[in-house]
Request: fold
Amino acid sequence: MPKNLFTVEPNYDHGEISAVGVLVVNLGTPESPTAKGLRPYLKQFLSDPRVVEESRPLWWLILNAIVLTVRPKRSAEAYARIWTDEGSPLLVTSRRLTEAIGERLSERFDSPIHCRLAMSYGEPSIPRMMDELKELGCRRLLLLPLYPHYSSSTVGSVFDAVVKELLTWRWVPELRTIHQYHDEPAYIEALARRVRRLWDDDGEPDVLVTSYHGIPRRYFLNGDPYHCQCQKTTRLLRELMGLPDERVVVTFQSLFGKEVWLQPYTEDTLHAMPGGGVGHVDVMCPGFAVDCLETLDEIDIEYREVFEEAGGTTFRYVPCLNDDEDHANLLADVASRHLAGWAAPSGTYDAEQAAAEAEATRERATALAACPVLADAGYGAA
Reply:
């Protein structure tokens, strides 16, 4: 007998009530803040051609001969500084946020909806969580990457991973993807409230820095919209807060390699500010849905030192939206719009009728399976 090219669907129930799956995806995190825990994570992450667009043979050699012999130890030291008793801040907070989104969607829709968190790199993996949603009867799948701004290296990578997994499935679900929410009014309002709470309690800084994760400038020149969307988010935030241009700046962080990335660089900007008369600065990272290594360590520890050593007086890091109620609400709003036509709004779904129709389908399938010609093959009918 020839080998199956696609997954076998042995658990299909003819009386199944189809559900909708919402796959919330974040970047990923190592299993532990150690060099041993970092190496497989970094290898998977940096092997993604969406992340590093280089000649694959040449990059394979550089990655394995140089990067993975040096970077795991250095990254492990940074992760150890932010690791908590619960584990990775990114994973812990992303789980809480996903649960909050799922709770809100369950309140808004009567038909079955299952919300799960997956990571592009590391665990819980995208294939594993897609399998879990399939086992729950999800024949429709909404992807919700936790990236407000579209980039090929983030949202594009999530789509690649999902499609790669689906290439092995026999029964492919309907698929929708949320590509960005960088100019969503509720997102801008949530960012503004986050800043205003801090300012109301502790006063205003000279300058608010909005620092975004960088990408190589080459990616932008090749058509990636990320830079423009970051600029728009900050402009909308500044306008909503009624601040002049000079009090809010856009910068880019987390450089990798020697290639020119989007500028101005956050580190260089913070280093130069005290010399230009800026003594009090607040830094926020609108492009990160939840706090992680790049915010908790790179910004709040490393770049704080850069600013203070250059003569800065006050440095405050403004936390990400994380699992705040505002954040969960706005993401549930975005997801709800994309679920239109897929899920029955609250008050419009008759569970008893759906169960009766499912049972009738099961009975018809059972009757057809009794046919001598089809019985051995296990065929049924809808």
Notes: The radius of gyration is 24 Å. DSSP finds 13 helices and eight strands in the chain.
